[in-house]
Design goal:
106 residues; three-stranded antiparallel sheet; 20% strand; elongated
Length: 106
């Protein structure tokens, strides 16, 4: 079935122990002993990504984008597509010679 990830989302008022989590120990955790985490997150590829930083991820497959310095553009390795449009300037050193696919720039 594959690997599993367990997330515990508790309100700050709730008090829980290691035993509540199926672990050993009598340590009591409260809102005072843990950081407050607020916001919207995406869980993908064993990563927790805050929604505000999704602009650094592919809009199709949600993989992290890579940067090609030679063409000054971000691209997705998984989709093999540029994620920035080329400009229309024929004299542009970056866009005028950019290949159709990032894999063609090797």
């Amino acid at each position: 079935m594959g690997r599993k990830m367990t997330l515990y989302l508790d309100p700050d008022e709730r008090m829980w122990t290691m035993k509540d989590l199926g672990l050993h120990g009598d340590v009591l955790f409260t809102a005072h002993s843990r950081h407050t985490i607020e916001g919207t997150y995406l869980l993908t590829d064993d990563q927790i990504v805050r929604l505000e930083v999704l602009q650094n991820h592919c809009v199709v497959c949600l993989s992290s984008l890579s940067y090609n310095k030679a063409y000054d553009a971000h691209y997705c390795k998984v989709c093999d597509e540029w994620r920035e449009e080329a400009c229309d300037d024929e004299a542009c050193d970056y866009c005028s010679t950019r290949p159709d696919k990032p894999s063609g720039s090797s």
